[in-house]
Amino acid sequence: MMKKIPVIEIFGPTIQGEGMLIGQKTMFVRTAGCDYSCRWCDSAFTWDGSAKKEIRQLTALNIWRELQQLGGDRFNHVTISGGNPALIQALGELVSLLKQNGIRVALETQGSRWQEWFYEIDDLTISPKPPSSGMKTDFHVLDDIIFRLTKKEKQGVSLKVVVFDDADFSYAEMVHKRYPHIPFYLQVGNDAISSNDESMLRTALLDKLNWLVEKTVQSKDMNDVRVLPQLHTLLWGNKRGV
Amino acid sequence: MMKKIPVIEIFGPTIQGEGMLIGQKTMFVRTAGCDYSCRWCDSAFTWDGSAKKEIRQLTALNIWRELQQLGGDRFNHVTISGGNPALIQALGELVSLLKQNGIRVALETQGSRWQEWFYEIDDLTISPKPPSSGMKTDFHVLDDIIFRLTKKEKQGVSLKVVVFDDADFSYAEMVHKRYPHIPFYLQVGNDAISSNDESMLRTALLDKLNWLVEKTVQSKDMNDVRVLPQLHTLLWGNKRGV
Ligand code: SF4
Ligand code: SF4
């Protein structure tokens, strides 16, 4: 019997808005629950109780059928996101099922928890949280996760740090130096997660991106990094399910 | 004695605004001259005579020194762009020199000409031009280039097609089907290459991106592709040298 997975949204096809696969056509499965509570979390509804009624307990097969219903023959890539999907052991069943059906799978997690099924993920983004989040990175755990992942040769893995201010940038430099061989992405923080004024939001995000590019250009420790905005926020503002 | 390379700009560090390395911190070397004359070329100054006085004949060593002067210890990546840099055999000397100095090298060309030094490029973007450009792709030449590149195992190569309209999108589908194993990027065309109104330009580009995402989402032939804007145009409008 298949185990249940707490799911808060399934949507797509759309494009991945951020990180190593920015622009990639994909479906999204968003799980409920997080062991963090970042100050600026842009998916707090997955863990703060506000969307409690939307959480469904689904088996891997339920999820796969819903993905097929929504996406038909118009997808071959699925992104699993949260919350922190790494809390959910049963996700391994979904990952296997997707892979058996020829689907490429991406996952994003903050790197606070290991799961054996990480090895089956094609594109794994580890996104440790900077000081502005209010969270503290457990580097023993993170070291261990990165170590396990780099043992496997063909694992697609990247680090991504969201940057809001100078302290966050210093944290990003430190993380990049600690794991210099992992492809590294800097992402502009979104200060205005509840704004409905799309044009103001766009301007604010692009100004922030400009600032982050300038910081990166000036830093000799950040030569081999990539700086990116969240495309979905530029496109669709703070809307959910796009 | 080193051969001369016609160069129209050298600038950076900045970020790569488009394609497979979007967001990557890099320096730019832009060569003069093109065998095409695309209707919407956003670097027509490299070939239309308007910036003739800016063209300098430089050796690989001259270029490397200028890169070091500009970038100091704040870069380890160089992007060679044009015009069509694939016209210039002598660029092989620059590529070798950069690689000897531990620099990663990216190159963009439309795929109308082969050079043996392509094999030394780390990240090669082939960007065949769609109908709206007014140009005609020579698929004999393109087939041959793709065939040579895929013989080498570790070559980083991608295809990128700029899309302005439905006919361009159909062309992109055809190219993607012809070379299904090459990572494929769709890029939003910039209709307003001479606009100085940055906010209007941003809105127009994001509306266009929205349209292209929707086309891609609906197409079952475009499941494994990535859709991207030009970040530098969103950030800095149509300015040169950023
Ligand atoms: S780790 Fe992610 S989902 Fe969890 S609180 Fe932080 S930003 Fe939100
Ligand atoms: S191939 Fe590139 S540089 Fe040459 S005319 Fe076309 S867009 Fe311009």
Automatic annotation (TrEMBL), chains A, B:
Quaternary structure and partners: Homodimer.
Q: What does this protein do?
A: Catalyzes the complex heterocyclic radical-mediated conversion of 6-carboxy-5,6,7,8-tetrahydropterin (CPH4) to 7-carboxy-7-deazaguanine (CDG), a step common to the biosynthetic pathways of all 7-deazapurine-containing compounds.
Task: Name the encoding gene, please.
Answer: queE
Q: How is the cofactor bound?
A: Binds 1 S-adenosyl-L-methionine per subunit. Binds 1 [4Fe-4S] cluster. The cluster is coordinated with 3 cysteines and an exchangeable S-adenosyl-L-methionine.
Q: Which parts of the sequence bind substrate?
A: I15, Q16, G17, R30, S81
Cofactor(s) of this protein: Mg(2+); S-adenosyl-L-methionine; [4Fe-4S] cluster
Q: Does the keyword Iron apply?
A: yes
**Positions bound to Mg(2+):** S43
Any one GO MF annotation of this record: S-adenosyl-L-methionine binding
Question: What's the source species' lineage?
Answer: Bacteria, Bacillati, Bacillota, Bacilli, Bacillales
The biological pathway it contributes to is: Purine metabolism; 7-cyano-7-deazaguanine biosynthesis
Question: For binding S-adenosyl-L-methionine, which residues are annotated in this chain's numbering?
Answer: W40, C41, D42, G83, S127, P128, K129
**Which reaction equation describes what this protein catalyses?**
6-carboxy-5,6,7,8-tetrahydropterin + H(+) = 7-carboxy-7-carbaguanine + NH4(+)
Radical SAM core domain sequence ranges? 21-238
Q: What name does this protein carry?
A: 7-carboxy-7-deazaguanine synthase
